[in-house]
Structure formats: C-alpha cells, structure tokens
Amino acid sequence: MKKQIVVIGLGRFGSSVCKELYGMGHDIMAIDSNPETVSSMSDYASHTATADATDEGSLKSLGVRNFEYAIVAIGDDLQASVLCTLMLKELGVPKVWVKARDQQHQKILERIGADRVIQPEYEMGVRTAHHVDSEKVVDY
Ligand code: ATP
C-alpha cells in the first residue's frame, strides 16, 4: 500500500532513503535547507521543498502533519535534529524515525518521543561483522 512519507535532510542517508522509497512507489515529500540539494532530488520525490526543518511555521505550511511517516536525517546538527523531531511529534505525525549520530543522541531522541532511532554506521558495522562471521570458510 502507498505510504505518505516526508524525508527531512537529504544527505547520503536521507537521499538514499528518499530515492528507494520513491522507487517503490510511495508518496514522498523531500525537504532540505539547501536549495541545491533539494533541486538535485527533484526526480526522486513526489514533492520537494527548501525549508528549515526547525521552523514550526514552515513545517505547518508544508502540511507535514498529514504524513503518516517522517524520516529525520539530520545527523550533525544535534539541536536541529532534536527540535525537528519534537515538533513533528507535537504536530501529530504518527511515526517519526530519526537518524542519530551516537548513543547520546539516540537517548535524547527516544526521550522526546522518536518512534524509531537509527544509527546507520553502528548498525552497518554490526551487520558487516555478522556477514564476515557467517561467510563460509573455503578450504584450499
Ligand atoms: P549524511 O551522513 O547522511 O550525509 P549527515 O549525518 O552528515 O548526513 P548533515 O550533513 O549534517 O548530516 O545533514 C544532512 C542534510 O540535512 C544536509 O543536506 C543538510 O543540508 C540538511 N539539514 C541540516 N540542517 C537542516 C535543517 N535545519 N533543516 C533542513 N535540512 C537541514
């Protein structure tokens, strides 16, 4: 079933989530504060917008509250990530998934109501270790 998803922050993580979900046929709104980044994503989202995701007025006028999912992929700016997550939950977005850069960031996000927190580098590290561990040993 088609999902309504807003992706905020279009760096490496956010842009790949956005492209993949759009390719699967979901309805995607892609938001970033950098206009060049936004225009580079115009073929990979249903709608795009240049906006500061810490500005409540911008989030409201973009109709973010009508989306079922929000993916917050702002990694470096902790304050922006936290503020945006808080506002999305206050606006009533049912599922807010947020990228965290470390354990402390994750803890804060969980406290303020993020529905799921992702630490991509950490999670990929764990998966890579499991892949190496489970790879068949070849006997020469
Ligand atoms: P990645 O590892 O996914 O490339 P990152 O974790 O290094 O990204 P940043 O580069 O800090 O994270 O941010 C990702 C994107 O979020 C950038 O394209 C940036 O322009 C955007 N961004 C940062 N702050 C805001 C904001 N307040 N509102 C909207 N977009 C923002």
Automatic annotation (TrEMBL):
GO terms for molecular function: monoatomic cation transmembrane transporter activity. Residues 2-118 form the RCK N-terminal domain. It comes from the Bacteria. GO terms for biological process: potassium ion transport. This is TrkA family potassium uptake protein. The chain holds residues 1 to 140 of 218 of the full protein.
